[in-house]
Amino acid sequence: MEYPFIEIEKKWQKIWDDKKIFAAQDQSDKEKKYILSMFPYPSGDLHMGHISNYSIGDALARFYLQSGYNVLQPMGYDSFGMPAENFAIQHNSHPKITTEENIAKMKKQLTAMGFGFDWSREVSTCRPDYYKWGQWLFKRMYEKGLIYKKKSFVNWCPSCATVLANEQVEDGKCWRCESVVVKKELEQWFAKITDYAEELLDTSDLVDWPEKVKLMQKNWIGRSTGVTINFLFEDQKLPVFTTRPDTIFGVTFMAIAPEHPLTQKFLQEEGENSKLYQFCQKVMSQDNSQRTAEDKDKEGIFTGRYCVNPVSGEKVEIWVTNYVLMNYGTGAVMAVPAHDTRDFLFAKKYNIGIKVVVQNDDKNLDAQTMSEAFTDDGTMINSAQFDGLGNQDCLEKIADWIASENFGEKSVNYKLRDWGLSRQRYWGNPIPVVYCQKCGTQLVPDEQLPVLLPDDIQIGKTKQNPLLSATKWLKTTCPKCGGEARRETDTMDTFVDSSWYFARYCDAHNQDAPFDKEKAGYWLPVDQYIGGIEHAVLHLLYARFFHKFMRDIGLTNCNEPFSRLLTQGMVCMQTFRCPKDGYIFPQDAIVEGKTATCALCGSPVTIGNIEKMSKSKKNVVNPNDYLQRFGADTLRTFVLFASPPEKDVDWNDKAVGGAFRFLNRIYKIFVKNKDFLTKEYSCDGEISTQYEELRYSSHYAVKKAVGYIREKLQFNTAIAAVMEHLNNLYSAKSPATSAEKAIYKEAHTIIPKIIYPFAPHLCEEIWQMIGGANLLHESGLPTYDEKYLVKNDITLVIQVMGKIRAQLETSKNAPKEEIIAKAKEIDNVQKFLAGKTIVKEIVVPNKLINFVIK
Questions:
Q1: Model confidence pTM above 0.90
Q2: In 553-664, at which residue ranges do the beta strands (DSSP E only) sit?
Q3: Cis peptide before 645, with omega less than 30 degrees from 0?
Q4: Which of 162-176, 298-312, 315-329, 809-823 has the highest mean pLDDT?
Q5: R_g of the chain computed on alpha carbons
Q6: CA–CA distance, 529 with 566 (Å, rounded to integer)
């Protein structure tokens, strides 16, 4: 008998919807819990990775509902950006059409899974009622001096034809399409996230975040203290940042990036046919990570120009190199070959001078014979008034001296750069700026927001920004003088949209503000945030920045958006790649042993690694198929049982079937005993050892499951506890006394209460089946009594003719006859007793049984 999951799931989803049990109250006497899972890109169907993520969030939300909290679990769609636009191009459609179609499909899937979202708060970032307030926040940042525009070299994806933030470049490739990223100089809008660098380093209000994520953010921000020293080139300053001011007298050349403004000045002077121009073009086409890799050959070209070291007055050569980056420090490095390994190798390669300024106290260094840089501590030499001092002692002294002589100043440097917001794509939030020949750059007035995207756009026909062809939309009037003006055609990075959506959920339909301050004050911060580790320095850092800005303008009253963070593991599956069709779906790969062929064209297929499910690699499983075969509760139980939530899950069809069999066993035993379970039984009367064990099993399962969910979010352990208890329940003989009947009933009734967060449809059904008056979340968490968890168990040694054959777990109060009977049933004991006559049974109380045989 298989339980009718389709019928049951539809029934309870309707009941939950009719009763609006997931509609959160904005003010309540109950303690609040805001549970949030990162919202999806609507660029196709949901896959099992999504199901895993939202199963975790829903299990927690239902657990806290059972615990009596006022729970908010909202859902929306990160619907602007490249994924949605590319999907529309691939399907020869318009992103406004395909995105809404995908949202409808995703919502249907989410509903079919029975996830308890408060749908009254649904948001979609591509809808005007949402992106209006993204434009409003952009304006507030601009007014506070946090938004500016400048010309700079940016990461350019030629395939996507748009700018990428540094965080969106992975191993030199676009994080979406894997095209090689190149450098391109454009005028761009930037957000001054660096103004919040110190605050972002402070993680004291992050109650429970993985240490790995906090470290990744710390390393990305990359704070270092040192000195900014102004070298001199002609009549201008050439600032460099260094953490080693003790080596300032040892500088023999200056290394600058190809993107440095001074390099660009040299290029204008020399033209495109120069060696300098060709070298810069070659280097700028390389990925930053490649340029700075330890094993990457250090290359450079002498510009023929010199700058002056301000502390010594010495002229030093200016070189353009491949290992200096514009997005770190000032884009210029004072090179000290004697005391820096990279500079040493470069100087040796290009025959540049070396000057020792920190002497090895154990062995005198000679610049002419040195075979490697000396990077340890030592005594200052060739350093004017600082000679003879220890270099560590001189770090602060030289820094103070440089500042006092106006050669530079003490400073703090960050690896973090300001956030480039501009994207040259159509499907994004329009930047609320217009350009007037008379008045210059002007913000669109608040009353004219939102600046709507034009619908009549042809996309995918050209590599240029589609908005450049929207001639009617481009023409507007200047809000200051009323004259002709032109709209900004860059749209915002989609990460702007996802940097504040968690706050909009607090008041999703407010037409007068991004959200109500009091409602945000009640719900924020998010109590539990759930999402992938890949967002550690993308979304999470940006969201923290936005939240702190919203706090500073009075919209929120807490320092951090997310108190607790769970970075869930990925659902993984094999990849298959056809030389003709590219990545193909697993069902299109005909696998025979260790080889495979493409069912579409018959070509040999490359069997790849087991990787996280990805639409781009097509190693995805469509939840719809499994919903029809096994139901939502089975899928939820499988992904939550397969591993701890922070670990990856390898997709396994057999294990999905195992989860279904587990739920089916629960359903069968409740159907079998439903008449018995609707009656009440007195706790008075005799209890056999077996029923003492069953009572222990019930209370232990509750303690273990509830504790592991609440304290460790270990859903797999909680489910395992129920599985073990279910086995004990199936093994129990029919109860003989009223007390045993009460224990037997209790052993059943705790099951739906424990696994309600994982398999809610089935649990509601069997709860109603046995006469539960309320819905399960209203019935509370199951409870346990410590007095029933005091085990009277002992382990007896079982011997045959004095040799140990087995051990037996039993109660120390069990009758002697019962213990002997159990001992005889043990396989290894039976083997030695078979065909023999037992002449004596020696029982040492609570220690051993020895069978003497003839």
A1: no
A2: 565-567, 571-578, 582-584, 589-592, 595-598, 604-612, 649-650
A3: no
A4: 298-312
A5: 34
A6: 6
